Amino acid sequence: MAHEKFDVGGMTCAACQAHVDRAVCSLPGVQEVSVNLLSGSMIVDYDEGQLGPDDICAAVDRAGYSASPVSADPGEAPGAPAARLESPTKKLEATAEAMKTRLVASIAFLVPLFYIGMGHMLGWPLPSVFTDHIHAMTLALTMFLLLLPILYVNRAYFINGFKSLAHRAPTMDALIAIGAAASVAWSVYAMFVMADQLACGDVHGAAATAMDNLYLESAGTILTLVTVGKYLEIRSKSKTGSAIEALIDLAPKTACVVADDGSEQTVDADAIQVGQTVRVRPGEAVPVDGVVLEGISAIDESALTGESIPQEKSPGDTVHAATINRTGSFTFRATRVGADTSLARIIQLVEDANATKAPISRLADKVAAVFVPAVLLIALVTFIVWMALTADVNEALTAGVAVVVISCPCALGLATPVAIMVGTGKGAEMGVLFKSAEALENLHKVDVVVLDKTGTVTQGRPAVTDILPAVRADGRTLSEKQLLKLAAALERSSEHPLAEAIMAAADERGIVARPVSDFAAVPGRGVTAREGANPIAAGNAQLMAELGIDIDRTQLEAFARDGKTPLFFAKNGELVGTIAVADEIKPTSPAAIGTLGHLGVHAIMLTGDNRTTADAIARRVGLDDVVADVMPADKERHVRDLQAAGHVVAMVGDGINDSPALARADVGLAIGAGADVAKKGADVVLMHSDLLDVARAIELSRAVIRNIKQDLFWALFYNSLGIPLAAGVLYPVLGWQLSPMFGAAAMSLSSVCVVSNALRLRGFRPTSTDMQQ
């Protein structure tokens, strides 16, 4: 089964999107199609044994559009430099510039056209050549000549519109083309009538015909107002990818490559190859991912991980593209370049999410598929009814054209993809990466969050929590530093994880471990050694009992209740102190649990740890529901049981042991930053490894879905109100008949409103941020 992305050209509205979708879905072997109007892209899952990319492109071409697969240059050799990341908004900005040129030209000719065409009705001063009855044809010809440039610069509406009619798949361009063409055609007919009247000497009849039957300024206004709306819409859409744009801009354009002989050369960043040595000076951005070879520096990784504190990097540590070197100079070996860097993977995840289709968009797709044909039918019926009731072609044509130009399938088609694009971009900015639009939508329905303990609620690594020197028989007591010094001397040769925690604590205090002799590990219990002539030991209660050393059982039970593991230290057969080690909870975990409760989401901790430790962690973070002693294979079953009980479940884990549960959950959220962003089992990746981001992701999902519903409601309400008004339903009661010019303005405004409403999400601020402050 192949999964391929295509660029699609020529789509202008939701009807276009529906036609492309239908054309590709009809091909044998196609499993799933997702067409995105906003990004002009399409993702197709298909059976390679039945068809290929060329067949898919041909089907799109037959539907009246263009398509090409998005792939690397086939002539590019393996290991060749990858192309620089392209901005997702460049294409939109180029389109906006072209639309701006059309708009300026349209306005330049519309202003005199509108003034001449409407001046006599509004009492504006006009030259006598345009007001005298005898010069009626001069007025008509002048207006027609002013309209021609407007028709020419906006010819794309007619080409695309009539092409879609020829393919029996009418689009919004077809509505615009029909409305404008009807106005022009009727006006040209009126000009022939005028010429005949003037030939017969009927000057007043020709003037009356010019007054009542010329719609040239209406045609020019319709095309110009639609172009205004299109320009504003495209400019707004180009802002939706601002978060990704900011990430791409962080990547440096050049880099300093160090040759084998030590010489340095500045090259394009996209020319760096795996294995090359790169130097980064203070203030410069890291161009690609790699491993530090020489030098020590502090790297600002906030662009990728959101971590505001610069991270110390020394030889052996990894660095990532787009992070900023704040202090010293260092060299590193490039390990991942181009599309393999962490930055590129983040951008790819967000773009993939934008290209997919949220389930809520199916409503708009179903409506769009029949929308334009329905509008054309309503316009035809409107024209016939007005003719039957009034026998006035002008009134009937006005109503019919108004119906055609006021309808707006664009608003329906843009409601979902614009909000999804802004939402996923905002998520990336916050460090929350949605892999699909479906994940973004499903998260808003979650009512239960299942949390893994280690690495999710806790730090995932043991740390020293208590240093308690004991009172010896002679009344003397070691200081905390002396006890830690003894502990470091014993544990420096041990490979146990608890020993690592003690050595880390010693390093933080600048303690250098003294050498010991006769070191021996006692499996499952601890270690023994000699410090000079003094026997020393470190281990659990069992080892102390074997050595005949008394310990404080009350303190031992207290540590157990708190989920801490005590290590006892003895010297010369006497207890000298206790150091407790525990997997510390993350600083934000209690706030995250509280925020989830505030959002109405029930949190459950699911862990393989023992009940005592699990309960201790739960008490400290405010969790009421804990399932302990769970094997990794059983986590998926617990998630399934919750779903069977009617809950919508999100699972939060590290993406490795928890992968079955992450895949089973309605939404899987993986903890992991930097190079771990592409975890396979999850739908959402939390870049900060911060549990608060779970609450933020849920809030963002709810805000996006609320925005989509607002836009869909507005689009449906606008069309359901505007079309009857244009058809003249209220004319018998209130005498209202909508002008095609006002209809075109309203249609353009509706699309701009939908996009503008979605752009409000750029200012989204989760309540969890406020609760922290």
Unreliably modeled segments:
72-84, 673-678
Which structural class is indicated by helix and strand composition?
alpha+beta
- What percent of the residues sit in helical stretches (DSSP H or I)? 40-55%
Q: Number of helical runs? A: 28
The main β sheet shows up as: 7 strands, mixed
Beta fraction: 15-25%
Strand adjacency order, main sheet: 14-26-25-24-15-22-23
Please tally the β strands and state the result: 26
**Radius of gyration, whole Å:** 35 Å
Q: Please tell me the overall pLDDT.
A: 81
Note the overall shape: elongated
Q: Compute the separation of the termini in Å.
A: 49 Å
How would you characterize the overall build of this protein?
Helix 3 (90-122) packs antiparallel against helix 8 and helix 5 crosses helix 6. It is elongated and about 135 Å long. 51% of the residues lie in helices and 18% in strands. It has 28 helices and 26 strands. With 773 residues, the chain is of the alpha+beta class. A seven-stranded mixed beta sheet has the order 14-26-25-24-15-22-23, sandwiched between helices. The protein has a six-stranded antiparallel beta sheet with strand order 6-5-7-13-8-11, with no helix packed on it. A six-stranded antiparallel beta sheet has the order 16-21-20-19-18-17, sandwiched between helices.
Kindly list the characteristics that best describe this protein.
elongated; seven-stranded mixed sheet; alpha+beta; 773 residues; single chain; 51% helix; six-stranded antiparallel sheet
